Amino acid sequence: MNKDFERGLSSLLEHGGRRSYIMYHGTTLEAAQEIKSHGFRRSSDGMLGPGVYVSRSVDKAKRYPLKPDPDERLAILKLKVRVGKVKKIDKQGHPLQKTWHRNGYDTAWVPPNCGMVPSGLEEDCVWDPNRIEVLDMWEVERETNDSSMCRIV
């Protein structure tokens, strides 16, 4: 694991999550504009249950949405996220995988290369959308049919 990443996570956990982190969210351009204007809404479910899914990895954000309409324009939102109290979820079937919020956590964190995500990239789920501030929005363009290949335009 990257040493800077480990230090960042240690800092995040040691300080009770009082810090803010730059994170990213990939979506359609239309949805990004709506989020920028009106804020995020918590999803109803997902790998970590309800919440707003973000990542400190822009490469992870570039993969979303997973199956966009070929005619849709895509975007990445650059965010400032106040993570609060963080729960590390590092395996499928973790006892708090979908109940971390009911157990006093504000954010669930899936570390990179733990086997939970096929890409091996880290992922976070934030319960309260008010913890997320949109800093910037970039339109992205798919370079091929491979959803992991896009560029910021």
Descriptive notes:
The chain has one domain: Phosphoenolpyruvate Carboxykinase, domain 3 (Alpha-Beta Complex), CATH 3.90.228. It is globular, with a radius of gyration of 15 Å. The longest helix has 12 residues. The protein contains 3 helices and 8 strands, in the order αβαβαββββββ. The protein has 153 residues and is of the alpha+beta class. It starts with a helix and ends with a strand. About 4% of the residues have low confidence.
Strand content: 25-35%
How many distinct helices?
3
The CATH topology is given as: Phosphoenolpyruvate Carboxykinase, domain 3
**Secondary structure: helix percent:** 10-25%
CATH class label: Alpha Beta
Could you tell me the mean pLDDT? Answer: 86
| Order of SSEs | HEHEHEEEEEE
Distance, first to last CA = 30 Å
Radius of gyration: 15 Å
State the low-pLDDT regions, or none.
Answer: 10-15
Shape: globular
CATH architecture call: Alpha-Beta Complex
Strand order of the largest sheet: 1-3-7-8
Work out the number of β strands: 8
Structure, briefly:
This protein is 17% helix and 30% strand.
Could you outline the blueprint of secondary structure elements for this entry?
Elements: H1 3-14, E1 20-28, H2 29-38, E2 52-54, H3 58-61, E3 74-82, E4 86-88, E5 107-110, E6 123-126, E7 132-142, E8 150-152
Parallel strand pairs: 4-5
Antiparallel strand pairs: 1-3, 2-6, 3-7, 5-6, 7-8
